[in-house]
Design goal:
Largest sheet: 5 strands, antiparallel
Radius of gyration: 39 Å
CATH class of the largest domain: Alpha Beta
CATH topology of the largest domain: Heat Shock Protein 90
Number of strands: 14
Shape: elongated
Structural class: alpha+beta
Strand order of the largest sheet: 2-1-5-4-3
CATH architecture of the largest domain: 2-Layer Sandwich
Strand content: 15-25%
Distance between the termini: 21 Å
Order of helices and strands: HHEEHEEEHHHEHEEHEEHHEEEE
Helix content: 40-55%
Length: 408
């Protein structure tokens, strides 16, 4: 897409510039010829008793100009009434048509322009007006032909490059695809290999705790082992979310009911930690996707909000629909000295405040999982903060409301 966008833009600019330059040059030549013809006609009309100057005197005319240049001239009075019609150099226009053309051109009020196959030039003087119509059918046909040819060449070039890009891009991205597959395989294999020693350590710690009850070191081993096991499980889950079809079996489910179920434990948790919790979940909303993963996403956002809302903080959950979209917003009070890195919160293992994150026991990949889940359901997730005093995560999904399906 990047390659085709760049090449298509270059071709569009090239075709546009070529045709604009050709139009300007062709029009300029037509205007110069029309001006010379007007000068030629003035001398002939001013002294009709004298023979008109030879056509070869017209700049760029040459000896064949009299036979290749087709035009007619209309001489009008100060009020615009046509007094003299000169059609000696054209046979395809009768006097009535010539008068009609002149009236239409004078209504426009312009000194020059195109009218049909003619390039006209209006010369206004105190004694009256002279209107010259120069047959420009060949010039106009050349401009149209150049436009069609350039468009055809440009379109053909874009199509050819598109085929070549598709063909060669497979080889260009092949190493990257292999590296990604190896990385996913490594994470999955390493996670499975780590589960055995982690389980062994946890079992040994439990047995040691029975013999040395209350030992500080054993308690720390059990805590870190549980954290490591949770991190391994999250890495496996995140690796699966990166697959092309992380949820092969999607179904319609009630998002309102799923959200109520996922949010219920966090009200009690917030109260136990001395924090205020508010929620508003609109009824009648449904979503096509994986119910468990959506609940996991809501749990991640609420858990994040309670962890980092500070003492006596507030956490808000709003789920509503607007214009065929479903919005999930989780906000909490906080104290962030620097909000420049908010967009990086969804990067794996990134933390705005490493010391507080370590104290809270976070692994740094929860928000990465939330983003992966949102994107796997065709949605998006964003974050914003008001002066570092509050932070809000917003998920936008396509679903249904009251049985009316929303188009994604």
């Amino acid at each position: 897409m990047a390659a085709m966008t760049a090449f298509g833009t270059v071709m569009l600019v090239l075709v546009t510039v070529i045709n604009i330059v050709n139009y300007c040059q062709t029009t300029r030549r037509q205007d110069e010829l029309a001006e010379n013809l007007l000068s030629h006609g003035r001398s002939a009309y001013a002294e009709p008793q004298k023979p008109p100057p030879p056509f070869a005197d017209i700049r760029g005319g040459g000896p064949e100009a009299e036979f290749t240049t087709r035009f007619f001239v209309m001489y009008c009075g100060p009020g615009g009434d046509i007094q003299v019609v000169s059609r000696e150099h054209i046979a395809s226009i009768d006097e009535e048509t010539a008068r009609e053309y002149t009236e239409e051109v004078l209504k426009k009020g312009k000194e020059r322009g195109y009218y049909g196959d003619y390039r006209y030039r209006v010369d206004r003087e105190e004694a009256g007006m002279t209107v010259l119509f120069l047959n420009s059918s060949h010039a106009l046909q050349f401009m149209k032909s150049l436009l069609l040819v350039s468009l055809a060449i440009g379109s053909g070039s874009i199509l050819l490059v598109f085929i070549l890009v598709i063909f060669f891009s497979q080889y260009a991205i092949k190493p990257y695809v292999k590296n990604m597959e190896r990385q996913k395989r490594f994470i999955t294999d390493a996670s499975h290999e780590l589960k055995t020693p982690i389980t062994s350590i946890a079992t040994s710690a439990d047995i040691a705790a029975m013999e040395y009850e209350g030992d500080e070191w054993i308690s720390n081993i059990r805590k870190q082992t549980a954290r490591l096991a949770r991190l391994v499980n999250e890495l496996v889950a995140l690796s699966r979310l990166d697959e092309e079809m992380p949820f092969p079996e999607k179904n319609w489910f009630s998002l309102s009911d799923a959200a109520w179920e996922a949010a219920e434990p966090f009200g009690v948790l917030a109260k136990a930690k001395g924090k205020k919790y508010f929620q508003e979940i609109e009824e009648g909303m449904a979503l096509y996707g994986d119910r468990d993963s959506i609940q996991q996403m809501i749990s991640i956002l609420l858990d994040n909000g309670i962890k980092y809302s500070g003492e006596c903080g507030e956490v808000h959950l709003y789920i509503y629909h607007r214009r065929r979209k479903i919005y999930i917003e989780v906000s909490n009070t906080c104290d962030l000295p620097d909000i420049s890195g908010l967009d990086r919160l969804f990067d794996r293992f990134y933390r705005l405040d490493a010391s507080r994150s370590s104290h809270s026991g976070g692994s740094g990949i929860g928000l990465s999982m939330a983003r992966a889940i949102a994107e796997a359901h065709g949605g998006r997730i964003g974050v914003e903060s008001e002066g570092g005093k509050s932070i809000c995560f917003q998920v936008v999904l396509a679903g249904t409301v009251n049985g009316k399906q929303s188009k994604q």
